[in-house]
Write a structure and sequence with these properties.
With about 550 residues, the protein is of the alpha/beta class. The protein is built from 17 helices and 20 strands. The longest helix has 22 residues.
């Protein structure tokens, strides 16, 4: 088995790849690493952890397995129940826990689930800490919580200092000094998190609630925010219509949430709402719909928040942090506003690291993971939605007007699953990456597909002054397909202002040309030889407009 930690914890099909045994073993392996890390930061007392989950049916047995692993290793466990992932991150610090655990597979289907750890203060684990946990998981005896014959403290309930130096690795398991942990339900902590969200909002000069007068549709994806999301918006003063707020364990993300904005758009128009907010299954991301039914992605939301913070002199360093996947239009808008943009690799942990190191307060991803470091250590969908709506409401403008702070330029994303080292070294990929000045980034990041596959993402942006669609997409498809081509996906993100323009028509024609090229590629006799060479299927490209 390859590395089980992906870009956002451990994920897999529940009961198949992510079993109860793996969940318990992972919890046991994590305890000595995370408790020792907490002790090194001066946190010396009986260890404790918080655990929360989304609404998947598999969360019940996986939670039981993780709790068993933690408690058998001497860790007190506070069960938070169904709660957004950022709520677990916040409460890890607010409840003074050594670490936090989340059971969720975010926007994935209900059959999947995942396990993610937060370190002390609710921060995501660095790769080296995950590597330590994985090493213990795979080592003989590394998941045995206790060694026979080792005595316990005379009073197992007494607070005892954490050993500063666990025994050196000799093949023997790490032994807890505390006896078995105790398990407590802490559902009332939801109110602590909700109070924190509302306290983050500015108080309008009018004395009214921040969202007073707004009618908002919120799509909770039948997920972790099904209760907290609507409650937060109502307490902030909005009239709320909630959809996707009836989880049954199997319907999470099913035709609702941030991956199905068409559902929210229809509801916004039906109810004559001012705006709509869409969360994913664990509510760590937020996308939006304006009153006209048009979508706002993470770049547009960041543009609104960054501009508002700069106007109020709260944008530290006049800087915002994004990933290499950000749209070129966002960079143009920030430059015009006098805001510096720092780019990181894909993944909100990289965004957080750059923000922490630079002391910046705002960053995020196009996907809707927005980090407001003054209030959260990770992406928080409910927090983001509250601040977006508060910003436009205080400015007295509709969401549609705020969205026009930036223009979304046409964007092409190609994702190729395969061996990342061969991809980066293959001349065909190098040649494809240098085809045009329209190529901004060649970004590589790992995704936990089957625990081991990698994703090569090639991103192209077309500037407003040069929207000519060229046949280079065909060349890119062909070049990357010759490398491996196992999963090539083209998504054209068309600027809202171009929906009926000649540029839009040219892009549509280009899409059709790429589709024809893909069909011709499948019919090419050389494909058989390529398959034999690389030992993998070579699939035709599919073309899908993002709008």
């Amino acid at each position: 088995m390859g590395r089980i930690f992906g870009t956002d914890g451990v994920r897999g099909v529940a009961g198949v790849e992510l079993t109860a045994q793996l969940a318990m073993d992972l919890a046991v392996a994590a305890v000595p690493v995370l408790v020792t890390a907490a002790a090194a930061s001066g946190h010396a007392r009986r260890p404790s952890a918080v655990i929360g989950r989304d609404s998947r049916a598999s969360g019940d047995f996986l939670e039981a397995a993780v709790v068993a692993g933690l408690a058998s290793s001497g860790v007190d466990v506070l069960r938070l129940g169904v709660i957004p992932t950022p709520g677990v991150a916040y409460l890890t610090g607010a409840l003074d826990a050594d670490f936090g655990v989340v059971l969720s597979a975010s926007h994935n289907p209900a059959a999947d689930n995942g396990i993610k750890f937060f370190g002390r203060s609710g921060v995501k684990l660095p790769d080296e800490i995950e590597d330590e946990i994985e090493a213990r998981l795979s080592s003989p005896g590394g998941t045995t919580p206790r060694t026979p014959g080792v005595s316990r403290p005379s009073d197992p309930m007494a607070e005892t200092a954490v050993p500063s130096d666990p025994p050196a690795e000799t093949g023997s398991p790490w032994v807890s000094a505390y006896g078995f942990g105790r398990v407590t339900d802490a559902y009332s902590a939801h109110e602590t998190y909700l109070d924190h969200l509302l306290a983050s909002l500015p108080t309008p000069a009018t004395g009214q609630l921040p969202l007073h007068g707004m009618r908002v549709v919120v799509d909770c994806a039948h997920g972790a925010a099904y209760s907290i999301g609507p409650r937060a918006l109502r307490r902030a003063g909005a009239e709320v219509i909630a959809i996707g707020a009836a989880p049954d364990g199997l319907n999470i993300n099913a035709s609702v949430g941030s991956t199905h904005l068409e559902t929210l758009a229809a509801a916004v128009l039906e109810h004559g709402a001012d705006a709509g907010l869409a969360f994913d299954g664990d509510a760590d991301r937020c996308l939006a719909i304006d009153g006209d039914g048009q979508p706002l992605d993470g770049d547009q939301i960041l543009a609104v928040l960054a501009s508002q913070l700069k106007r109020s002199n709260q944008l530290i360093g006049d800087t915002v942090v994004v990933t290499v996947m950000s749209n070129l239009g966002f960079h143009d808008a920030m430059r015009e506003s006098g805001i510096t943009v720092i780019e990181t690799p894909v993944g909100d942990k990289h965004v957080y690291a750059a923000m922490r190191d630079g002391g910046y307060v705002l960053g995020g991803e196009q996907s809707g993971h927005i980090i407001q470091l003054g209030y959260a250590t990770t992406g928080d969908g409910v927090l983001t939605g509250l601040h977006l709506l508060a910003a436009v409401n205080s400015a007295g403008i509709p969401v549609s007007a705020a969205a026009k702070l930036m223009t979304r330029y046409p964007q092409v994303l190609l994702n190729v699953r395969g061996d990342k080292d061969r991809a980066m070294a293959d001349p065909a990929v190098v040649e494809a990456a240098g085809l045009s000045g329209m190529v901004r980034q060649l970004a590589l990041n790992c995704v936990p597909a089957g625990f081991e596959q990698n994703l090569l993402t090639l991103k192209l942006d077309q500037a407003a002054s040069d929207r000519r669609t060229r046949p280079m997409e065909e060349k890119l498809v062909q070049g990357l397909s010759k490398y491996l081509g196992k999963d090539i996906r083209l998504a054209f993100e068309i600027a809202e202002s171009d929906l009926n323009s000649p540029a839009r028509q040219r892009v549509q024609a280009e899409q059709e040309r790429v589709a024809r090229a893909a069909s011709a590629f499948e019919a090419d006799p050389a494909v058989k030889g390529l398959r034999e060479r690389f030992g993998a299927d070579v699939d035709a490209a599919s073309v899908k407009p993002s709008n």
